[in-house]
Amino acid sequence: MRAPRNQAQPGEDTPSGSAGTTDTPAYPGQVVRSPLALAALATVAVPGLDAFDVRRPAQPGSDFDTAVVIDAHRNRWVVRAPQHAAAGAALEAEIVLLGMLASEAERGTLPFAVPAPVGFAHLPEGGRAAVHTEIPGEPLRLDRLGPGPGLAADLGRAIAAVHELPTSLVENAGLPAYDAGEYRSRRQAEVDEAARTGKVPPALLRRWEDRLEDVALWRFRPTVVHGDLTSERVLVHGDKVTGILHWGDACVADPADDLAWLLVAAHPDTTDSIMEAYQLRRTELTDPHLADRALLAGELALARWLLYGVRTQDPEIIDDAVAMLEELEAHTREEQNAQAESLLA
Fold this sequence. Notes:
By secondary structure, the chain is of the alpha+beta class. It is built from ten helices and 13 strands.
């Protein structure tokens, strides 16, 4: 599914050129900063940082201004500054969680790095910019994932390590925590809202409602989840996951959500390797319907994309979501027909 990027990755950068240092308001309540302005914030946040070069992300985000600052010793630092008050509030909660996650990484509980801030700079309009050292690695490419004990298995273990974390980490950071019943109700509310748009094929609505009414499907133990995993948020080097970025949507919820993007987009042979490594890493996995809920979450992501377009009154997003929903409905119908024919054979 094509969805809006929250922000670009530190590894995807281009020379900043000669952009000015003056903050430019995009609309009331939002501020967009140049790379040089962000570099200046980084020197305030990290005493002794001597900025030598600054690079802009290849894909700017809609909520945060981000830049990679290179110091005189060729060390690379990432500076993030919220563009509006809501992003600033989300960053503050994320900062608390990242501090605790960094401690887990130091202890080896997490087998990868997280972007824990090492310094802050107060912003004139309120809030703070945060600076962290750049995590080595490149964004994951699903087309390079193959079956077997390599990167696919390490990815499964990395996600499992997140789900093994104490839920108190998220709760103490003030981030949301849901039990299984509450989370199922949230999913039902999404389906109901999508149905009211009149743009979801009726067969898909029936399919989703049947799964939401299946009580057995929703018997799971909530875990810490990243909440917005995509290939851009996972950094890799060789056969290892080196870092996971953007923890602002972390919560205690359904672990299936962190697996949905992989089960939907990766090759089936690869997902088998991911899930096998994931299950071996989990210590208390008694969840026979995990993959079923992950596939459902992948389908419901299309409904959320539609709702995003409706709320923002963006006809291009709405048309895109409707096209993908119709494609999903056609694919589902073909699968059902094939299954029926095999039973009659």
